[in-house]
Amino acid sequence: MRKSRKLAVIVGATLTATLALAGCSAGASTSGGAKTLSLWVPAGTPTVAPYIASFNKSHPQYKVTLREIPFANYDNALGQAFSAGQGPDLAQINGTSMPSFAGKGFLQPITPIIGTTGDVATSNFYPNLLKAAQFNGKQVSIPIDTGTRVIQYNKKLFEKAGVQPFGETATYSEILNAAQKIQALGNGIQGFCYVGGVKEYTINSNIGPFIKQSGGEFINSAGTKATIDTAAAIRGVTFFKDLAATGSKSNIVSTSEASCDEGLAAGTVGMQYNGFWVIPSKADPAVFELGQTLPKDKTTYSSTGGWVLGVPAYVKSDKSAIIKAFVADMYKPTNLVKFTGLMPATLSGRMRRPLSRRRSTTSTGRF
């Protein structure tokens, strides 16, 4: 009897110890997971790195590493990383490039990882931006920001060319007429300056909006057929072609908006179509005075999407805890403003955006 009781005690103790160890192991696996997070973003927003540093300081249990890549090389770098299955755990992705990546299976649904409460609640996003971050009905990304583009023009050159300043809106014929008169001034002065060497620039800042303003669309409502061969879409593309003809031929291969921005400030560019982040911050008032207007044909249109946040398909579930913690912190209104120089994609973030904040004009294009 004594031996049986002793054996029972030993077995019971062993079982208790085993269960305790198993409990510790399960707890570590469930509540622990990976402690490091690799984040890739396009270079150009100076407040991102300081924010990441502050996150790491306030969350000592985690470590976020940041890689900033020049915009011109960013899509290629992401594509290569996604294809190889090795790269960032979390990536900022151009909204115009996201469908291409998602269509290749490079992104996984993000909402099961980050949840839908707090600042990442569905109701806190602008609906159309949230919808644009989906692919085939799945929320494979969430929007970060958006940007508004307008015709920025130099009133001094308008005056010199005998053109009246535009109103709040301007028709295609008014815009083209002004560009042609400014080009006629000679001495290399451009009526309209654009960036043609990077497809995102051309789509976001020129052809895309003009197609929309002309009443056209890129695809049908079902998302099954391209519609850029419609009369409305062709009108938008044709207008851009005619407007582009009043600029320098070097624009065709240009990969930086800096030349247009600098030309506007120097009095050698009459117009560009872009956002507030490239408004010249230093210019001689004798040669530059800013004017802004919305082009209008069938309608007005100025927003061409923005950046989104995505989790690559190769990222394992052990990264979920740190991704959720980081995203929850990043989307807090004050932090989202630090992460973007454009209009935040959340209602709460929009209310906290300082009016004086603007992106550096040295940025190579954050759409």
Description:
By secondary structure, this protein is of the alpha/beta class. It folds into three domains: 1-30; 32-147 and 305-351, Periplasmic binding protein-like II (D-Maltodextrin-Binding Protein, domain 2), CATH 3.40.190; 150-296, D-Maltodextrin-Binding Protein, domain 2. The protein has helices spanning 2-31, 48-58, 71-84, 98-103, 111-114, 127-132, 155-161, 172-183, 199-213, 231-244, 258-266, 320-330, 333-339, 347-351, and strands at residues 36-42, 63-69, 90-94, 107-108, 141-143, 145-146, 150-154, 169-171, 190-192, 269-274, 290-296, 307-312, 343-344. The strands form three sheets. Strands 1, 2, 3, 4, 5 and 12 form a six-stranded mixed β-sheet that branches. Helix 9 (199-213) packs across helix 10 (231-244). Mean pLDDT is 86; it is low at 1-31 and 353-367.
Question: Element order, helices and strands?
Answer: HEHEHEHEHHEEEHEHEHHHEEEHHEH
The fraction of residues in strands falls at 15-25%
Number of helices: 14
At the fold tier of CATH, the topology name of the largest domain is: D-Maltodextrin-Binding Protein, domain 2
Report the end-to-end length measured between terminal Cα atoms.
80 Å
The CATH homologous superfamily of the largest domain is termed Periplasmic binding protein-like II
Low-confidence stretches: 1-31, 353-367
Structural class: alpha/beta
Number of domains: 3
**Radius of gyration, rounded?**
26 Å
Top CATH class of the largest domain: Alpha Beta
Gross geometry: globular
Name of the CATH architecture of the largest domain: 3-Layer(aba) Sandwich
Average predicted local confidence, pLDDT: 86
Biggest sheet overview: 6 strands, mixed
Which percent bin holds the helix content? 40-55%
What's the count of strands? 13
